[in-house]
User: What shape does this take?
Amino acid sequence: MSDSQQGRVQAQFGPSAAAYVTSAGHAAGPDLEWLLAWGRKRGAARVLDIATGGGHTALAFSRFTESVVAMDVTLPMLEAARRFIAREGAAVRFVGGDVETLPFRDATFGTVTCRIAAHHFPALLPALRQVARVLRAGGTFLIQDILGHDDQDAAAFIREVERRRDPSHVRAYRQLEWTAFLRAAGLTVLDETVMSKVRPWDEWTTRMRMTPEARADLERFVLAAPAHCRDAFDFRIEDGRIVSFTDRMLLLRADRD
Assistant: This one.
């Protein structure tokens, strides 16, 4: 990850670490359960969770996995996840590191997970090549991220919304793009699903510590956008106030060749 992008990520998520630990949308839900079901079927002895954030995915996998390593580039986030998982009584190892230079030997893990984080990566392919490198032959990569929209106007609209709320956001990728990048890294998609995830507006904007002025500017931008762009993400507006919107989440299981 470039120094500038790494700095943006750390600046955004370091002060927000506690909010991500307590985020209900990250802590549980059918999306996480789906990844866990895939993981249980694979039964890997060693799991790496990259960009672990609040540590919820690492914690969930530790319930049935012998060895789990949680990695993040933002050290305050990693420390918040460490404290959270310690309170839960789980055994997880924590490592600071960048997705583009994973600090592990080749073929170390049977499963690698990455949940709701890849839209912060400056580019997908370098990170995916690192994932393939640390996976054993036949190992599994389990991914969840925001699904990019096929309509260019809608995609540009939501990208601007995301960036105004979180300057470290880069972009969400379409399903065909994910499949192509994974294939280029030596990973083959074997299973996939798409789920909807409702984003309550107040919680979503507050978690990123937006100033009242920045939030007001963002809300004016959303309300002034073409209706078809808002409709693409099911923005709920009541009495001129934004209540929520809905992301589509792409979940993939890809195996190393």
